[in-house]
Amino acid sequence: MSKIIALAFALMLFCFPSAAYAAGATPSYSSLSFNEAKLANQDLSGRNLQKAEFTNADLENTNMSGVDLTGVVVSSTIMNKTNLHAANISQGLFDQVRLFGVDLSDAILVEGMMLRATFTDVKITGADFSGAILAKVEQKKLCAIADGVNPITKVSTRDSLECR
């Protein structure tokens, strides 16, 4: 009988997480939603925002330096002068994201999916793009300015972008 109760509770946790919270359980996942959030000029530096979701968010002049954004999802967002210096954006998804004047220096973007992201006037010194998927035109733009070595992964920016 206890196996049936455990299975029912696991099903409730998966299908109805808010009901599981009410029952005193803590789901094994966490996802912060910043959909349509107004975060312009905010200081979020050093925070843990793993698996956070930013859709149509205002991130202009937002300080996100040193933030753990592992597994982040950023969609339909314009990042204008956003500071992502030394941020960990590994396995992040950038869909329809425009990055203008963004500081990605020393950032870790390993295995990121950035096919529909555009980069304009960005700083990428020391950024690690190993295994990241980028549009070829964006990869070429970034290769033209790539230099430095990431202080954590010890991978050169040019090598991580597979620049020729």
In short:
The chain is of the alpha/beta class and 164 residues long. Helices cover 20% and strands 15% of the residues. The chain contains four helices and eight strands.
Give a verbal description of the structure.
This protein has 164 residues and is an alpha/beta fold. Helix content is 20%, strand content 15%. The protein has 4 helices and 8 strands; from the N terminus they run ααββββββββαα. It has helices at 2-15, 17-22, 136-143, 157-160, and strands at 53-55, 73-75, 78-80, 93-95, 97-100, 113-114, 117-120, 133-134. The strands form 3 sheets. It has a 3-stranded parallel sheet with strand order 1-2-4, with no helix packed on it. A 3-stranded parallel sheet has the order 3-5-7. The protein has a two-stranded parallel ribbon with strand order 6-8. The longest helix is centred in the first third of the chain and has 14 residues, at 2-15. The protein is globular, with a radius of gyration of 18 Å. The relative contact order is 0.10.
Order of helices and strands: HHEEEEEEEEHH
What's the overall average pLDDT, rounded? Answer: 86
Strand content: 5-15%
Order of strands in the sheet with most strands: 1-2-4
Structural class: alpha/beta
Shape: globular
Give me the Rg, rounded: 18 Å
Major sheet: 3 strands, parallel
The first-to-last residue Cα distance is 63 Å
The percentage helix is 10-25%
Number of beta strands: 8
User: Would you identify the regions where 5 or more consecutive residues have pLDDT less than 50?
Assistant: 1-29
Q: Report the total helices.
A: 4
